[in-house]
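In the design runs reported in the main text, the only information available to the sequence generator was the tokenized backbone. The following block is the verbatim input for one such run; it is reproduced so that readers can re-run the procedure and compare outputs position by position.
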């Protein structure tokens, strides 16, 4: 018998058994397959279950999702773009194993609340800054999921001072400025020659002017977004996870400067933005919380 956490992300799938301590070696990761992505998920779950029958599943999925219908439509999975009935598929593949689904950003917020930087903060936002920017909101120690399950899409918050076109069809979104793909594109147009966001961060550490400037823009945008969200929600903690969280001074100095400049209301004086300490497994930890919630009572 096994509790399983499954992450369906924009860059690949990951799964592990729920346990008190999970190391990277306990996690199985695969890229998004070109064909039959759901069958790949099933095989991944069975692999980490190691011959045991799953008793419950917690699923962190990139959006958009329809939490009521159990349908997901992440654009990075071509076969699912028009909607895939994930919860129906789970029931068919693992009959008798209840499942809980949430947006990946919501799962990140659950993880930070359970084991991370917001264990002592009942009102907070956790955001993942990678190629996509997603987030999760905690209010009164409860996760906010919204009408359809998509609450926390901070990547599509409009950021003053920026007007870049966004993949969503709009412009001026946080993700269009600070998302990994946008950062790399902006830096390459100014002479940087790397491939990945990790390359960009490393180049900035070595003083590459285009890389430093790209991270400074991202930090400013993230700080402005954090100040805006804090004012709306009356929160005092914003946690940044993902590849950009480790970017150091080029990102964090302008980020904190933007927060100081814009979070001027009296109730925001205690606002702190901090890097996550959960590494790459935050969303899987949140999915584990969901699995524990879904587990039938003995």
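Verbatim output:
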């Amino acid at each position: 018998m096994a509790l399983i956490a499954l992450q369906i992300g924009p860059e690949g799938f990951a799964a592990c058994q729920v346990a008190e301590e999970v190391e990277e070696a306990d996690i199985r990761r695969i890229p998004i397959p070109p064909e039959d992505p759901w069958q790949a998920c099933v095989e991944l779950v069975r692999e980490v279950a190691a011959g045991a029958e799953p008793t419950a599943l917690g699923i962190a999925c990139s959006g958009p999702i329809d939490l009521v219908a159990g349908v997901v439509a992440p654009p990075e999975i071509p076969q699912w773009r028009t909607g895939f009935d994930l919860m129906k598929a789970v029931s068919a593949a693992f009959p008798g194993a209840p499942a809980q689904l949430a947006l990946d950003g919501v799962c990140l917020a659950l993880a930070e609340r359970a084991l991370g930087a917001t264990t002592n903060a009942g009102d907070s936002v956790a955001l993942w800054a990678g190629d996509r920017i997603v987030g999760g909101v905690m209010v009164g120690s409860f996760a906010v999921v919204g009408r359809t399950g998509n609450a926390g899409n901070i990547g599509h918050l409009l950021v003053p001072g920026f007007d870049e076109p966004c993949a969503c069809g709009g412009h001026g979104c946080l993700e269009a400025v600070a998302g990994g793909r946008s950062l790399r594109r902006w830096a390459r147009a100014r002479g940087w020659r790397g491939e990945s966001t990790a390359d960009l961060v490393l180049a900035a550490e070595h003083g590459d002017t285009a890389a430093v400037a790209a991270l400074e823009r991202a930090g400013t945008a993230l700080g402005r977004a954090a100040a805006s969200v804090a004012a709306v929600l009356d929160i005092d903690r914003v946690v940044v996870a993902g590849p950009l969280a480790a970017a150091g001074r080029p990102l964090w100095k302008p980020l904190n400067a933007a927060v100081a400049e814009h979070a001027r209301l009296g109730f925001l004086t205690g606002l702190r933005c901090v890097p996550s300490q959960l590494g790459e497994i935050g969303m899987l930890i949140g999915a584990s919380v969901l699995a524990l919630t879904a587990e039938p009572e003995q």
